[in-house]
Each structure stands twice: as C-alpha cells, then as structure tokens.
Amino acid sequence: MTKRTQPKLATVKGTELINIQQVVKTFSNAAGEFTALRGIDLTLNRGEFVAIIGKSGSGKSTLLNMLTGIDHPTTGKVLVDGTDIYALSESKRSLWRGRNLGIVFQFFQLLPMLNLLENVMLPMDYVGMYDVDERPKRAMELLRMVGLEEQAQKLPRAVSTGQQQSAAIARALSTDAPIIVADEPTGNLDSRSANHIIDLFTELSERGKTIVMVTHDSTMTQRTSRTVVISDGVLVNETIAQALPLLSQPLMKELAQKARQVSYQAGETILKIKEPAQNFYLISKGNVDVVLHKKRKKEVFVSQLGVNDFFGEMELLRGGKTIACIRAADKPVELLEISREDFNWLMKKSPLTEKAISNTVQKRLEEKKQTDKRK
Amino acid sequence: MRPRWRKVLSDLIDNKARTLLVVLSIAVGVFAIGVIAGAYVIISDDMSISYAANNPANIELRMDDFDEDFLNTIRKFDGIKEAEARRVFNIRARPLGETQWTSIDVVTIEDFEENEVNLLTPVSGKEVPLKNEILLEQDVLEKMDAAPGDTLEIQLRDNSIKTVYVAGVVQDSSTGAVDFLAPPLAYISTDTLRLFDQTELFNRIYATVETGQDDDNHISVVLSALKEKIEKNDYEVGRTFRSLTHQHPLETTINAVLGILMALGVLIVFLSSSLIANTLNALLNQHLRHIGVMKLIGGRDKIIFKMYLVLLVAFGFLALLIAVPAGGQGAYGLAQFIATKMGFSLLGYRIVPIALIIQIAVGLLVPLVAGFVPVINGSRVTVQKAISGDLAGESSEQAEGGANRESRFEAIQFEATRILADRGIRIKRPLLISLRNTFRRRGRLILTLFTLTMGGATFISVFNVRVTLHEYVESVGNYFLADVTLDFDTPYRVNEIEQFAMQDPRVTYVEGWTFSGADILSIDGTTADNVSILAPPAESVLVEPLMVSGRWVQAGDEKKLTISEGIFDLYPDLQAGDYLPLKVNGKEESWEVVGIFKFINMEGILGYAPYEYISRDQNMANLSFSYRIVTEQHDRAYQEMMAEDLDAYFRDHGFHVQEATPGLATLDSAAESLDILISFLLIMALLTAVVGSMGLAGTMSMNVLERTREIGIMRAIGATDTRIITMVLVEGLLIGVISFILGIFLAVPFTYGLSWIVSTAIFETPIAVVFTPMGYAIWAGLVIVLSTLASVLPARSAARLTIREVLAYE
Amino acid sequence: MTQKNINPLIELRDVVKNYQSEAGVFPALKNVNLNIERGEFLGIIGKSGAGKSTLLNMFTGVDGLTSGEVIVHANGESVSLHSLSENDLALWRGRTMGVIYQSFQLLPMLTLAQNVMMPMDMSDLYHPRKSRERALELLDMVELSEHAHKLPSLISGGQQQRVAIARALANDPPVIVADEPTGSLDSITADHIFKLFEQLVQSGRTIIMVTHDKGLMPRFSRHVEIVDGELFDNDSFPMKGKARMGEDRK
C-alpha cells in the first residue's frame, strides 16, 4: 500500500496535457433546465499557469469541476494525459484525483481536526504514496516551502486565512501531482495574502507544474501565462470580454469574428493627431501612450492605456479628427481593430456599452481639459 | 394560517425521519411510564377489590377433623362474623389417557350456593359440581390439559383409581393465595367425598372477623382467642394463617416489582430526554439560517422562541397520540398478565386518570425541558452568525465547550499523538480523523455516551441479577438436595423403608425425616406466628444451609433449633444463642436458637432441629412419614421417572404413599415467577438499549450531516468510498466501545442496587450478588452490532455524496 | 420633518471593524465615513475579502462595530443602529430595510406568497388578510403571481431572487440593501434583476448594492470602491490608469 509508485505524467513543458472536447453541462431541476457549459473545447499545455475568468454564474466553476472529475459532463469528453477521466468509477476517480491533481479551494477547506502537518500528510495516506516514515518529512518540507514551518503543529483555525490557504497549497502538492487546480484561491484573502499565494503559484509553474486557477478577479490575469474567459457557458475572446464587459455573450462572439488582430512595434504611432479616424481599438497586449502636440511641437504626455483598455471611441462617437496622438509604448503592442461600421453596429446593438463608452469619453475630455489648463 | 405557524407546521412535516425520531423518543418514555403507572393503579385497585369481592377469610385454621356442631360453636364465637368449614385433602389426578399424574389439593365445600367465605369466580362450565363432579381452579390447567366435560382419573391412597367429571373451571383468589408453593386446587361437594374414600368431617376453618378486617393486630387477637378455645375443646390446631380482607397476600411483592419497573421507566424517560436534547440541538443548528433570515426581516427573539416552543409542544403532542393509547393498552395488558399469574381478576378495561395525567405531563414536559436550552440559544443567535452559516463549523464547537477548555483538550490529544509517535506507535491519519472526530462535539458525545452507557449498564445488570436470583434459588435448593421426596399417610419404620428403597439399584441413599409445627409466642404469651420445624437426621447430607449466624443443628441438640431469617420480623434483635418461646405439641417451651439461616421468607418461618430429638419428642422414634431419597442421577427427567417408579413400587408393596415428588419440582414455581420478573426487566433493559442506540444513530447522522463538506474535501484529495465508510464506522464503533467500557464499571453499582431491590421485594432479604460474563458478552456483541447499524446508514449516505454536492455552497 | 430633508438617509461616522481570531486582529473596515442620500442607487464595489460585505452588515446592523457610529434617518426618526438591542434592531430593520442576499435566503418550506408575507407577519404591520393581498400584489409586480403557491425549490434562481426582492419590499421600507444580488445568476437574468432595481429607484427608494463586478458601475447613480477595508469615493465613471489621477481621491 505504501510504496506503490504511480507512472508520473511526463513533465515536458509545452506538450498537451488536458484536453476538453465538446463538453456540455446541463443542470436540471424542478424549475427547468439550465445549460452551464455550451460545448467547450479547450486544450491546456504542461507548465502553463492558466486563469479561467468569468463573472459569477458564467460557468467557470462548472468548467473547473469538469477537469477535476468532480462533476460529470452531460456530453463530451475530458482527457487528462490521455486518461478519459469519466470512464473511471467515482471511487477510482477519487484515487486518480488524489495522485494527479492538487486541489485548492476558495474556503481553504483544511480538515479542522487535524493540524497543518497532518492535513498535508493526509493525501499521501489516502493514495498510499511515499513511505510511511517519509511522509512527515515531505509534509514538513512542503510547509517550509510555503513558509509555515513554525505553524506545523497548529490547528487550521489557529492560523490566519492566508496561512490556511498556503497550507492548502502545501497539501495540494503533497502527492507531487503534476496539475494544481485552484477555485478562487484568493477569493477570501486580503490583497497582500492574495499576492503571496499568486507568487507561490508562479514559482510552482516555473518548476513545471501546470496550474489552472478560476477567478472572477480580472487583475489576476496580469500574472498568469494564459487566460481563458468564459461567459454564459462559452469561451470568449479575452480582450473583448474584459474591455467591453457589458456586451451580451452572442455579441462578444460576433464581435470577435469581425475584429482584426494588428500589431505595432515599440514606439510606433497608431493614431496620428488630426487625421480622420476610421477604427476602434482594444488593447490585448502591451501599453500605449496618449500624447498631445502643443504649440512649439512640444509633446505633452496625457496618460498611458494598458491591456483591455480601448481607444479611438471618441472620434467615432463624436465625429471629427483624432484629438490626440496614440502610439505604442516601450514594448510591441497587439490590438484588436474594429471598423467604424462594426463599431456603429455594436453601439446600436448594446446601448449599455454605448452609455459606458460615452462616460469614458466625457471622462477623457475632462482629463484633456485639465492637461490643457496645466500647460 | 400566518406564515410563522405555517413554517412550524412544515418543520414538523417536511423532515419526517427527524420528527419520527423525536416523537418516538418521547413516546418510548411516555409509553413506559404510562404502562407502569397504569398497571400499578389498576393492579392495586383491582387486586384488593377483586380479592375482597371473594370475601377472603381473615383466619384460616388447619386442624383435626371436626363436625358441623363444632363449626356452629365457632360461628358463635365472639368477634367472628362468618365461618365456613372445608375438608381439604391431597390426591393425584390426570386426564383420561394421560400418564403424568398431577398432585391436587381437593377442597370440599358443603354448599356451593350458600358459601360466604373464599368465594369462587366462575371461569367456564358449571359453577356448582354435582355428585362425582369436580371444579378445577384455573392453575390446574397449567399442569394438565383439561376442560369442562373431560374425565379425570383420580388415584387414591390405596392405589385405587376413580373417575370424576370436570364440571367447570373457577378462579379462587383467596384459598391458595397464602401458600405460594402449595399444589393447585380443585373443588367437590360433600356428596363426592365418599367416592374419594374420605370421611364426611372437616379439617379446616375459614372465618372472617366482625370488625377490623384490615387490622392485622385485631385479627391476631381474635385468632389467638379462637385457637385457645378450640384447643380447650381438645382439638389440635396445625397451622394458622391470617390475611386482611383488602390486601392480597402478595400485594407488597407485586408492588415492589412494579416499583422496580417504574424506576426503569423513569430511567427510560431520562435517557430519551437526553436523546431529544441531542436531536433538538442539531435541529436548531440546521435551522440557524432560517432563524437568521427571520430575524433579518423583523423577527424578534420572542417570536422565534414562541415558534420553536410550539414546535416542541407539537412533538410532545404527537408523541402523546402514539403513547397514550398504546400505554393504556399496555397497562391493561400488563395488569391482566399479572392478574392471571396471581389469580385475581380485573374490573375491566379503563382509562386510569392519574396515569393519563402523568403521561401528558411527561409527554409535554420532556420535550420542553430537553429542548429549552437549544431553543433559547437558537432564538438568541445573532443574524450575522446565523447567516454566515459559520455555526455548523468550528465556532459553535468552541461555544459549546468554551474556547480554553476545548484547546486544552485538543492539546492533550495532540500530546498523546506525539508521545505515541515518539515510541514508534504511529496512528495513521485516517484513523486519527475518526478518533478526533469522536471528541469534536463533546456535548453531543457526552449525551450519547450517557444514554448508551445507561442502557448497557442496565442490560448487563439485568443479566447479573438474573444469575444472582437463580443462584440464590439454587442455593435454596440446597435445603432440598434429595432427588425424590416420598411422603406417606402413616409413619413407617425408617429401616424398613430404607431397605425397600435400596432394593432399587438406582437408589443410592435414603434419609427418614420428620417434622413438627410450633407456635412462636410473643412476649405477652400470645401466638405470634407458626414455625414449621423440619427434622432431618443431625448428620444429614441433604441440607446445605446458608448460615447467617450461629451453627447448624447437631446430634444431641435438645430444644434447640436453627431458624430462618423470617424470625427477624418478629424478633429483630434475635441472635444465635438467644432463647425463643415456642409452643410445641401444646406445651409452652423455651428453645435455644443455635443458628439463623437464609430462606425464602414468603414460605413462612422455617426451623430445623435434629430428627433424633423431634421423633423422640413425638414418640415416633425410628418412625417417619417423610423420606428423602438420593438417586444415581440428578436431572429433572430422571427425578420425575424415579418419583413415578418409587411411587408405584411402594404402593405395590402396600405402603400408603401420599405423594412422591421429584426434588427440583419444588423450585419450579419459585423459578417460574422469577423468570416472569426477569423477562420484564429484560424488556425494560432492551428498551433502554434501544433508546441508547437510537441516540447513537441520531448522533452519527447528525455528525455526518454536519461534516458533509469535510467529507467532500477528503474525496477531493483522494479518499475512496471505503475510506469514508470506514471513517464513519470507526467513529460509531469507538463510541460504542467507550460506552461499553464505561458500562462495565457502571454495571457494578447498578447490579448491586437492582439485586438489592429485587431480592428485598421477592425474598424479603438481601442476597449475595453474583456477576456473570454472559451479560457483558451479550452487551459487547449487541453494542458492536448496534453501533455498526447506527453508523452504517450515515456512513453510506456520506459515501454517496458527490464532491460537487458537498462543495456546492454558493 | 424639516430635519429629515437636511440629513442624509444614512451616515457612517468613523466606522472601524476588527475581527479577532486566534491568528490575531484583522481590520476589516478602517475608519469608514460615508453619507447616503435619499433616492440614490449606490454601488459598493470591491473584491471578495475587501470588506464590502462587512460594510453592508454595518448598514443593516447585522454585525456589531468596533468603533464609530451608523445613523439612519428614516420613517421620521433618527436611529443610531448600534445603540439598539438585537430585538429592537430586528423590528426596526424589518420595518425600515429590505435586505437581499446573493443566495436568496428564502425559507424553503414556505410558498412564495408565504415567504413574502413573512416580514409582515414578523413586524405586525399588516393584518394577516391584508398581508396576503399585499404579498400577491408584490409577486405580481415581480411577475411571479402565477407561481405564488409554489415552493422556492420549484422555480429558477432568477425567479427566487425576484421573490426575495418582493419580500424585501413587503413592509414598504425606504431602503433596500442587496449583497451581490446578481452574483449567482447568468447575465440575462442578472439584467432583469437590475432593471427591477432601476424601477424601484425611480419610484423613490434608496438602494445600496454590494458587488465585485466593476462592469456594473455605469448602472449605479453613484458608487464607492472598497479596497482592504478602505473606502474610495468616486463620483464619476473611472478610467483605466486612474492610479495617476489619485489626486482626485478624498
């Protein structure tokens, strides 16, 4: 029981590890049917640090449950390193999960009757990995890694929530599972503890673990290697979903098809001042600078826009020429370009988005006025 | 209906299993109390009424034959109201075609219709027997299979066989009541006496007194005077009995037994209320969110408190609906059972108001008392705590035990784990979880352990008491070691009988005994009681007495006797070496009490003196009526066969055999009545065990319910079904084992207490307690089975939970 | 009565809330000051763990505070919430505030109508017969009158939340407080709920809503952001890069 070794998943970075094929999940209750996932296709590679983001109710936790084997898909398949996990029995899947997945929950979910060390040892006991004498040593090592060596003998409720989450991560690592799955791991933490947890994840992914994290906090995406956005049960373009969150899901999908991907070198000008504007842009990678040219050709820096910001809306909405120069900042920039025609179509379809964008326009005009005054 | 009451109603209806558990827990206690209280009242009312209704004789005299004229003088005696004469003699009877004889005392009644004392209650068939007809007391039917219209064969002293017809069956609650061990009775008219070769004279007087029928002292005075007068008329009086009109001779015994049952009933109520407290605590915990919501939208403590109070009352009310009718029926059933056993009849089914009131009070009070604390706590909970749902977890546990104590307790657990680990004993985490889970809800654990342990200790004690009683009866059997007792109508020479008996190679030993009756005099010279003095040879090997003090009889003892403990009722300070005033063969003498021994006091006071002295005193040296015979084997069947064979053998040789009784037969009726008591005790013990395991089942399912999320986590980190089931089972078993260990210790005082109460009630003397491993073994098995059963369902439902359900908290 | 118009509806004055645990003191609210005017649709935006639910619990009086004061001027009286007893507070809250939670918190054993009647029953403001009529009216308003006699488990999440709103309106309170009311709903259903709120604001009620969803910002008449227990009051729609416009902060 103790020394059974499991063929380890190969840890060659970049190769395909998790393959979700056409997964549909429908919940039915007395009130009727509700489709949480509407045909998801997704491939995750080894060593990736993936964030699955979406609002509450978007289906992100359901998606996570599909790849942990916690819930059954209604149709479709989930292959993890070639294993069809839904072909296993519930009890076998428990054992499979224990060996291949480390799970971190939002509410820490340490067992309250065991101290931190015992909590970390438990998965090894359950799946019978490592020698009995080796288990406490390994658990201690993991606790040291997450900085909880001193607290090893304490009960979960005697340490802070951030420390509990760190211990939960140590537990998730105890069977040396190649995949770490985390559901809102920073959800109940203050921002400092949350950062600490994300640091830990980054370090782990650098060491070759594949990390899949569900969150509703889009700022987390700055730290992950990849972001998957889900909205109403469908994966959507990340940039569109982030920049224009008020769009309905079908509109997002349609817009994604209409938009073109363009890229600019560092420092390259995207929009020249006083030229007629034709397009609306969403930033998917990099930063752009907003610059005004004053008399005497002196450049005045107004602001910098980052990922998931948009520009070009002012001209399209108000008509007229570009009022500021926009250029790529110190790194190459990737943009989604949306034509005037498509933009107008979008504004007509989604009045809410129009209102939000108008608000932004007002805000930016005020900003400009202030800059004008200052100079 | 206002929404608040609608909610209460739904709480009651929606979770049927829980409502059932609570209602049944209350009902069990209410039922037990109702049955016993009801039976108590019915029996004590009806027993005296039914007994008095038959106009029982206050005075019974067993004496020499006398005639009608003499009876008339007694009827005129001062203080005597009514007097009836009877002729009572012993015969053997069997239904035609059967082989087994039954010893029966036949009572001759002069005029069945004019009879005024010790009235008979008809059961079936005719009430008055004609010539050659016989009425059977219903106890006879327990020994033989006969019904009105059947023919009985009667064997007389001279071995001749006569036949009589069974005219009817009657119940006689008075005549046989004083003598527990006497043979069953049958009744004939004087016309039939000749058939049985009996003279038409009487040998017993049954009389009632004019006043003071329930005053033992008065009856005693009348009896002494009457006896004196009779003896002046040169009639010898054998034994005398007194009884009160309104008190069945066995009433105190029955009341004592009912008292024990009542104590157990109260225990069950007590246990079931701790079970209810547990369930209600869990219910309130589950309802905290509802309470929070209600408070959020304007509900005040008072409203919430009222709502749950109504829920409690509703639980009680439902329990009453079940328990009151069932308890009423049960009470009557129990009373009926005891009445049949004791030979009296009930006045009919009825509702006993006091039992009803007690039931209602218990049924409503138990849930209120048990639920008061949980309800108060529940209604006082703050919205914040209630809504955050945090209460099912750790914080309430802290609140329960107090944060400091909790952590100290945990510290001990951790320390223990570490010390064990240091010595190389590693408890695996999965087992550790079961261990620590067991002690998490300590309030709940204590209540569960309490019920289960009490149930177990009672269970074990009942077994101990059973063995104690049987051991005692067996030791009483040491006074009756002979395999066959052979009684003759006339005295024979001891040598002669011995010679005859030993001709049967199966007979190994013979002793000739004799006996004498004596009156024990009180200080003022009046007769206080009778003592039957048995006279075995001084060197007899057939009596192994249980001495309380002093010594056993010795050869050469003259006017010396050992006497049974019953003497303490008359002379509480009597010691070995004291002298006792006796009236033996009409002579007042002072006898030395050389020893006091234990015996069943209900049989009256018994004494032993050496055969050598008594037979000489009776001018019957070397003669004896009564022989004790030892045979090769000693089992019941062999004894019966030998009694049968010796009976036939001696009759064939012309001896006037009165009766040959197998040795153990004497003990049967005593053991039988004990077994009735034991079975009652066992039923009560089982009830307490059932209540205990209901408590455990409740606790385990509450535990699993509260830990569903943890179970989900365990599954998420690799625990298989087997692991989860094992975890829950081990916890249940652990509780079972702890309660068993506690039960072992608790059973000791329980056994002593229970055996003291029972033996004092039945034998009127405390007896030596015996412990038997049987009760422990059965309870150990039972507690393992019960705790497995109690946790297997929760365990299985725990294993069935999928992680998604468990973690779906949003 | 004149005072009523001068004072804001709700005042938070220097509110501090610390949580004590074995691990130490955790400050959930750090000296929060906030005035809420009548007729506002105020959004309180913050990530989970930022303290937004704790802040909400201050308005409702559900949770105690470490220091500071919460004063509500409603129904012609000014009440300092945390000076009331639990009982008085329960009654006051029942009559003054409708509270809506992410998880609906309907009583599962009662029909929708009975759920809506419950606050009226608890506060004794309406005669039982009248409360029944009113419950049905409110269910009609949230377009659920046809389901009035169903149990909550038989309707969808969105419908349950509408019942919760009807229940919050039962005693006709001037203030509605909602904690992530659209949190567990899909976007279309969430939109329905939002429209309902907007109608209520138009009819003169004050609504305070807590959410983590920044996308909802434009729909509030005003919003404040809470980060690690501190409040940032923004009067207008924020822009990205606002960090460098930090001078605007109060």
Question: What is the secondary structure topology, with strand pairs?
Answer:
The complex is a heterotrimer of chains A (375), B (810) and C (250).
Chain A lengths: L15 E14 L2 E14 L3 E5 L6 H9 L6 E6 L2 E2 L5 H11 E4 L11 H12 L6 H12 L15 H13 L5 E5 L7 H16 L3 E6 L10 E6 L2 E3 L1 H6 L5 H10 L1 E5 L4 E3 L7 E7 L2 E6 L5 E7 L4 E2 L1 H6 L6 E4 L4 E7 H10 L1 H24 L1
Parallel strand pairs in A: 3-8, 3-9, 6-7, 7-8
Antiparallel strand pairs in A: 1-2, 1-4, 4-5, 9-10, 11-18, 12-17, 13-16, 13-18, 14-15, 14-17
Helix pairs in contact in A: 2-3, 3-4, 3-5, 4-5, 5-6, 10-11
Chain B lengths: L2 H12 L1 H38 L5 E8 L1 H8 L4 E16 L6 E8 L11 E5 L7 E5 L2 H4 L7 E5 L5 E11 L13 E5 L12 E8 L6 H17 L4 E6 L8 H36 L1 H9 L4 H42 L10 H28 L2 H6 L5 H8 L1 H20 L6 H10 L3 H35 L7 E10 H10 L3 E15 L5 E9 L11 E4 L9 E5 L14 E6 L2 E11 L7 E4 L2 H7 L5 E9 L4 H17 L4 E6 L2 H42 L1 H9 L4 H43 L9 H28 L2 H5 L3
Parallel strand pairs in B: 3-8, 5-7, 13-18, 15-17
Antiparallel strand pairs in B: 1-9, 1-10, 2-3, 2-6, 2-9, 4-7, 5-8, 6-7, 11-19, 11-20, 12-13, 12-16, 12-19, 14-17, 15-18, 16-17
Helix pairs in contact in B: 1-8, 2-6, 2-8, 2-9, 2-18, 6-9, 6-14, 6-18, 6-20, 8-9, 11-12, 13-20, 14-18, 14-20, 14-21, 18-20, 18-21, 20-21
Chain C lengths: L1 H5 L3 E12 L2 E13 L4 E5 L6 H9 L6 E8 L2 E4 L5 H11 E4 L11 H12 L4 H14 L15 H12 L6 E5 L7 H16 L3 E6 L10 E6 L2 E5 L16
Parallel strand pairs in C: 3-8, 3-9, 6-7, 7-8
Antiparallel strand pairs in C: 1-2, 1-4, 4-5, 9-10
Helix pairs in contact in C: 4-5, 4-6, 5-6
Please explain how this structure is put together.
The complex is a heterotrimer of chains A (375), B (810) and C (250). Chain A folds into two domains: 175 residues, P-loop containing nucleotide triphosphate hydrolases (Rossmann fold); 129 residues, Jelly Rolls (Sandwich), CATH 2.60.120. Helix content of chain A is 34%, strand content 28%. Chain A has eleven helices and 18 strands. In chain A, the strands form four sheets. A six-stranded mixed β-sheet of chain A has the order 6-7-8-3-9-10, with helices on both faces. A four-stranded antiparallel β-sheet of chain A has the order 2-1-4-5, covered by helices on one side. In chain A, α5 runs parallel beside α6. Chain B has 810 residues and is of the alpha+beta class. Among the domains of chain B are: 187 residues, no CATH class; 182 residues, no CATH class. Chain B is 54% helix and 19% strand. In chain B, the strands form two sheets. Chain B has a six-stranded mixed β-barrel with strand order 2-3-8-5-7-6. In chain B, strands 12-13-18-15-17-16 form a six-stranded mixed β-barrel. In chain C, the strands form two sheets. A six-stranded mixed β-sheet of chain C has the order 6-7-8-3-9-10, with helices on both faces. Chains in contact: A-B, A-C, B-C. At the A-C interface, α6, β15 and α11 of A face α7 of C.
